[in-house]
Amino acid sequence: MPKVEQNKEREERIMTEIVVDAYGPEEQAMGWYYYLAETMQFPFTATCISKRRSSPLKEGTTVEVVDIAPADDCEREMYMEIAWEGDTLAVPLIQLEAPDADPPTQQAIADWHYWVDRGYEFG
Description:
- By secondary structure, the protein is of the alpha+beta class.
- It has a single domain (8-118), classed as Roll (SH3 type barrels).
- Helices cover 33% and strands 21% of the residues.
- The chain contains three helices and five strands, in the order H-H-E-E-E-E-E-H.
- It has helices at 8-18, 25-39, 103-117; strands at 44-48, 62-68, 79-84, 87-92, 96-97.
- The protein has a five-stranded antiparallel β-sheet.
- The longest helix has 15 residues, at 25-39.
- The mean pLDDT is 94.
- InterPro entries: Uncharacterised_Ca-bd_CcbP (IPR020994).
């Protein structure tokens, strides 16, 4: 069962702007990738809102998101590159929220969270 109720406005944006004309999982992933890359204004500050086994971030950790990860890394999930210990590290976007980012970036993050929380997957 989805974690969030259906939002018609968000559904419409996702279907007509993000995954429009996407006929398979790869095309849906690329739709999301380009939507996020074109919509988000980098860099921005984000906070970790959930722990993931595949990521070193802990809840409450604040990070600087410097870019979206390369497309090859985003075939199953969307990853953001963060500044981490003098280097960059890719972490899942679902872990992050950015309440101080510009409105388009906040909307893009909320759209991704909605997609995941509704149980949608590529394919």
